[in-house]
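In this section we walk through a basic example: taking a raw amino acid sequence and producing a predicted 3D structure, encoded as discrete structure tokens. The instruction is simple. Fold the sequence below.
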Amino acid sequence: MSTSAQDYGGATARHRWMRFLPARWRDDRGVAAVEFAIILPVMLGLYLSTAVTTKAYMATRKVALVARALADIASRQTAATGNPTVVDSDMTSFFAAAATIMSPYTSSTLKMTLSRIDVIKDSSSNLWAFTNWSVTNNSGTARPCNGTNSSFVLSKATWATDSSTYPLLTGDVSVTTSGYQKYLPPEYTQSGAPTGFLIVADVYYTYNPGFTFRVFNWSNLTSINTGWTQAFWSRTGLPIVGSSLSTNATKCTQNNSSNRTS
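The resulting token sequence is shown next.
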């Protein structure tokens, strides 16, 4: 028997068998609609997750631009004579200018911190970083005066017994990690790195997608946290003084250069 004959015979047998089924079981109308209803949640989930992921990535890039702009404009402070200074009105302008970069994304969840961190060399040629001042915006996290690096011994006796003067720890820690503010990237304190005055911007952002995926019970996609740290050296090479800062400011007077030896 040929293959075509076998196929015909099989089809005929199936046809005879189908006649014994109820009519509603043999009715294939609406099959396409049923199939579409089955795959619709999957298609919709893939489409929405792709859209949310793309927008979240774009927001992440915006956060990086905010951090770079914030540190850049602050590091450019100059003065006709003496050291450049920053006051509360300067900080308001810096934060406002940087926040506009987030457009068209909302800046309501944008947390920013701007700090001056001094990198010094001790008598053994080891490099250490200290917070001099730190100003927060929209509930950002200040850089601590005490970085908890207790292995450091200061050259002055009063500092050697004062744990609040320990410097920042060395580590490449993400802004989205708890305790990140105690760390500075290792390239600023590794052997051969320069000393000077860093302006560091820490930016933390929570992206809330318009669609929360709760219908799929994807609770991990209700919000996406991202952050960026950017540092620039003072463009003049001089310390940018923030002694007059008061609004949301942490001033580490014990870390002033007059209190330590290089």
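Looking at the output, two observations stand out. DSSP finds five helices and seven strands in the chain. The chain has one domain: 35-259. In the next section we compare this with other chains.
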